[in-house]
Each structure stands twice: as structure tokens, then as C-alpha cells.
Amino acid sequence: MAINLQKGQREAIDAPKFTIGLGWDTNTSSTGTAFDLDASVFILGDNKKILSDEHFVFYNNLKSPDGAVEHTGDNLTGAGDGDDEQIKIDLTIIDPRATEICVVVTIHEADSRRQNFGQVRNSFVRVFDAATNTDVLKYELEEDFSIETAVEFGRIYKRDNKWKFEAVGAGMKGGLQDYLNKYN
Description:
The chain has helices at about 110-115, 175-184, and strands at about 5, 10, 15-25, 35-45, 55, 70, 85-90, 100-105, 120-130, 135-140, 150-160, 160-170. By secondary structure, the chain is mainly beta. The protein has one domain: sav2460 like domains (Lipoxygenase-1, Sandwich), CATH 2.60.60.30. The strands form two sheets. The chain has a six-stranded mixed β-sheet, with no helix packed on it. The chain has a six-stranded antiparallel β-sheet with strand order 2-12-11-8-4-5. The radius of gyration is 15 Å and the shape is globular. This is TerD family protein.
């Protein structure tokens, strides 16, 4: 049975291999333009900076150099139930310099489309065992992000040689570029 997390809550991840599922629903009628939400992953070192450009995993770079983080591809519509995008994680082969994996979801072309996370609902991040399709952890974002165009859903971090998941739920107004600036 999955552990349902609240914002800020942390929980150990005992499985070295797992998948992160991300989901959301959008209010398409509010702007007249379709939404395209994108999951991105930043693999960081001790200095809270990205290990290299290749350690930024997103729809144009689907796999980290070590193969430990793999984005399964961009979902352009977010239609339907369940996960909209997934990221496979294998901590057994991750770069030893990696101490944190940040999972961010952004709205593609949010400014020109006049869209923000206030128009997105039922957002969640879950960690699950792909072999059994069993949820280990789940965090449902309940905040109303009325001006934010990017949200850090969660992060996986290493402390005392153990990996943990933190339910973050923190938004940013500037979109993906703000996260690139923060982590570069």
C-alpha cells in the first residue's frame, strides 16, 4: 500500500529501481489553447548544481549519461487518466557525484499561451515499482498556483548513503528558465 505524503514530508525509498509517474488535468476552455506540460529532471551534486548539461533530462534529452535516469517521452496533451509522463530511475548505476534528483513540471510556452498552474488540477507525483505496478509513495499537490508556470513536484536526495523522497510542491513564476538558472 502506498504512503500518501503531505507537502514537505519525506520518506525513505528502499527500492534501488523505480519509476516516477506524474499526472495532471488541465482546464482547456480557460485559455482556448491546448496545454503542454513537460516533466524535467535535474541531477545535482553536493553544490546543488547540475552535474553537466547532459544531467538535465527532459523531452530533448531523454537519458542521463550513466543511464540511471530515463524520461519515457513527452506527452503533448495530458489527456486521459493515470500518469501523463514517466521517469525511470536506477540508483544502482547513478553517477556517484549525484546527491539529488529534482523533478519539475513546466507549462510549455506558458507566457504566450497565457497559462499557469492555477488552470491545472489533480496534479500528482508517485513513485512506483514498475515490475508490479505498485505505488510506493504518492503526493497529490493541493495548492493553487495562480501565477506559477513551473512547479517542483518532488525531489529524491541522498543523506547518509540512503535515498529519500521529499514532497516539495513549490512553484516558480519564470518557468523552466528559472530552474535552469537556479541549477547551473
